[in-house]
Amino acid sequence: MTTDVAAPPERDELFAPRAVRMHTRADGTRLLAAEQPLGTPARSLAHLLRAGAEAHLGRLLIAERSGRGWRTLTWGEARAGADAIAQALIERGLGAGRPLMILSGNSIDHLLLTLGALTAGVPVLPISPAYSLNSRDTARIRSIAQRCRPGLVYAEDGEAFGGALAALRDIVPLQAASRRSSSEQEPFDVLLAVAAGEEVERAFAAIAPDTVAKVLFSSGSTGEPKGVINTHGMLCANQQSIGQVWPFLHEEPPVLVDWLPWSHTFGGNHNLGQVLAHGGTMYIDPGRPAPGAFEATIDCLREIGPTIYYNVPAGWALLATALESDAELRENFFSRLRLMFYAAAALPESVWMRLRATADGHAPREIPLTASWGCTESSPAATSAHFRSARCGCIGVPMPGVELKLAPEGEKLEIRLRGPSITPGYLGDPAATAAAFDHEGFYRTGDAVRLVDPADAGEGLIFDGRLAEDFKLVTGTWVHVGALRTRLLSEAPILRDAVICGHDRDTVGAMAWLDPSAAGPQVRDLLRAALDRLAEGAGSSQRIDRLLLLDEPPSIEAGEITDKGYINQGAVLRRRAREVEALYAEGSSGVVARST
Question: Could you tell me the sign of the dihedral formed by the alpha carbons of 583, 347, 385, 417, in that order?
């Protein structure tokens, strides 16, 4: 057994020094933790709201598009609105056992309802709009409602969400909407007009770190969505640790331009929570990284310069192209930017290099491009690459307060988590909760990682794919899907996204979508050349011999793509089994094969 301590690097104006303990057991298991202990977190998210409102009453908290302008809400207005809504929810019988269900996307009213519920100790169920707007049936939201028994369900637009609201009427009769509400839905303004009383203060005083703040639901693409319990304590512990590794947040309140959905942990916990914890401001971006929708993002970024910019790799790929060609956008985007940040999936190295080149050539200061890693069950940030030397793909080192176990699983190391920012389990599902933790109480993530330098944990970890996605060729050779997919997208930047195929086949294949800007007879030659480069010096499991371009975009309804914009490998392969067969059929038209 060995214990190593990484030497801290030089001081940095943005990042705290990193120092990591690593203990190696005889069976190859490694235990990692930050040397820096976790400070004392806030008691609850509601306490963060009240402290922020007291410190900067008139500061802008949130803004959303209204025509070409913005509808705004200050910290003081948010505190007053949250208290009023807390009273309204208490009067309607909501409480720890009768949560608030929210069907809608990000908005000021959505935030006010969330803050009101958190102030009253009422758990919030932010449900992906895809479950109720894009789905052909409402089975998932009915299943969630039957398990959770909400006291009230809210939709931003009563007409757009009318089908979902009608489907929930027998389970959740009390319903509200901000606009286009029917006689069956209470107008949102009625909730906001209630005078707060002593009941609110009693409910607020009763909030403890183990009080449930939210229940977030997995995509459910392979079965019923699991309800991940998020307590006030775990969310506040996570924000405490973020503030410790990014100390500049205490001096520079974050200004975010953000589209990431609040029904997911990245947008709703990490980003929105950061604004609440550090007195920041969020501009809600109405766009998303999809054809026809990203233009709205560009419009926002031309007008509002963020101090930190968050996105998923698909969004960064689109933004890289826009920044390269638009001087006005570059000037405003970089004007006060301190950090560029990606998460949720691996960033292709080609995109990394383009962003680095643009920032280094045009930004008025050095701007790190950094990453983190986590999951819904970890609040989410469990690791952070809070050092400038981190390379593309590095997810960093343990956050303060988070213990990592790297447990051998076949040829890989599964990353497991323990600490105050980790979920206590799944709502109403003791069997799933028990299965999710190992005998030492570490949460089993199902993700694999490897050390950048096995001798120095301070150099960080590299994400090594999902254990469940990897497969074997008929030869028995393992194919590591995550790494191979990232390499393909780096070698062939004309591809928007891809999935890797080949389970029980002789060779590895891929199915992919072209970037809309790619067209012409040279496309096949470019892809063939990319496959050739990928195969140079590579074994059978590390090269792609054939590729099929898909015309139909990935479907949110079928679970092929999540609200955050990344591909669900398993869902695509299940839904497109016919295309997989075509990929491997001899002489099949449309398949691009390597030239050698």
Answer: negative
What sections of 171-222 are H helices per DSSP?
Answer: 188-192, 198-205
Q: What is the pLDDT of residue 7?
A: 40
Quick: pLDDT tens for 414-464: 999 999 999 999 999 999 999 999 999 999 999 999 999 999 999 999 998
Taking residue 320's Cβ as centre, other Cβ atoms within 10 Å add up to: 19
Return phi, psi of residue 465, to 5°. Answer: 95, 170
- For residues 480 and 304, the model is more confident at 304
- 447/468 Cα distance (integer angstroms): 8
For the cut 50, the answer to whether the pLDDT of residue 366 exceeds it is yes
Question: Of 512, 505, 481, 507, whose CA–CA distance to 592 is shortest?
Answer: 512
**Dist. CA 166–CA 320, nearest whole Å:** 42
Position with higher pLDDT, 12 vs 16: 16
- Where do runs of H (alpha helix) occur along 341-480? 349-362, 430-436
- φ/ψ of 384, rounded to 5, equals -150, 130
Tokens 């006060």 belong to residue: 336
d(CA 125, CA 154): 10
Q: Are 398 and 33 in contact (CB under 8 A)?
A: yes
User: Hunting for tokens 């489907």 — which residue is that?
Assistant: 167
Question: Which stretch of 89-103, 207-221, 262-276, 504-518 has the lowest confidence by average pLDDT?
Answer: 207-221
> Per-residue pLDDT tens for 137-177?
688 899 999 999 999 999 999 999 999 999 999 999 999 99
Angle between the 108-119 and 198-205 helix axes, to the nearest 10 degrees?
70
Single-letter residue type at 155: A
* Mode of pairing for the β-strands spanning 30-34 and 20-24: antiparallel
Average pLDDT over residues 571-583: 93
Per-residue tokens: 379: 């609040």
> Which two structure tokens, joined as six digits, stand for 458?
């301070």
Rounded CA separation 120/143 (Å): 25
Going by the DSSP 8-state scheme, the letter that residue 36 receives in this structure is S
> Do 349 and 392 touch, CB atoms closer than 8 A?
yes
Q: Give, in degrees to the nearest 5, the angle at Cα 413 between 439 and 2.
A: 80
Tokens 């990591």 sit on residue = 20
How confident is the model at residue 519, as a pLDDT?
78
Amino acid of residue 22: M
Which residue from 292, 284, 244, 249 is spatially nearest to 267, judged by alpha carbons? Answer: 284
All structural domains of the chain:
1-44+233-414+454-460 (3.40.50.12780), 471-593 (3.30.300.30)
pLDDT-wise least confident of 131-145, 335-349, 503-517:
131-145
